[in-house]
Write a structure and sequence with these properties.
The chain has about 150 residues and is an alpha+beta fold. The protein has a 5-stranded antiparallel β-sheet with strand order 1-2-3-4-5, with helices on one face. It has a 3-stranded antiparallel β-sheet with strand order 7-6-8. Helices cover about 40% and strands about 25% of the residues. The chain has 5 helices and 8 strands.
Length: about 150
């Protein structure tokens, strides 16, 4: 069994539940929720090996483009924290159905996940805990749609 704590302790970055680690000139990315989904990228972004599907690869490559500079260039911890807070935005929310808390990057463009989050926040299944909800995830709630369509 893969030890998630061991993975987390030995990575350079964890973004949107993906662990990024430098391995010589390549970057190894592991999906923390499903460690069998992994990807090895060359520094130029070329895929060397993967067990991820195309959608997941696009999400990971988008994250990698955002963190490439600090992974390539050595930064002090203070500089990295400043860079990270300016460039890697996250939204923290609670899924009312499962009770789990998630942190995701709203800058990633993926139609499936954008629709998923818009429906979750619109229905009230997701409760925003931290960060700012992007416009693409905002929409009318089921209550607002009901009020508009049903005359009491």
């Amino acid at each position: 069994m893969i030890d998630i704590i061991e993975i987390a302790d030995n990575v350079d970055f964890i973004i949107d539940e993906y662990a990024f680690s430098r391995l010589e000139d390549d970057v190894v990315i592991v999906n923390i929720n499903n460690p069998k989904h992994a990807l090895v990228l060359a520094e130029n972004g070329e895929i060397l090996e993967t067990t991820m599907d195309d959608d997941e690869i696009e999400i990971v490559k988008d994250c990698y483009r955002k963190i490439k500079k600090p992974m390539v260039e050595e930064m002090s911890d203070e500089d990295w924290l400043k860079w990270n807070s300016e460039n890697v935005l996250t939204v923290k929310y609670k899924d009312c159905c499962t009770g789990k808390i998630y942190e995701v990057n709203p800058k990633i463009d993926n139609t499936f996940w954008d629709t998923y989050y818009k429906r979750g926040f619109g229905s009230g299944d997701f409760i925003l805990l931290d960060g700012e909800l992007p416009d693409k995830w905002k929409g009318e709630s089921h209550h607002e749609i009901f009020k508009k369509n049903v005359k009491l």
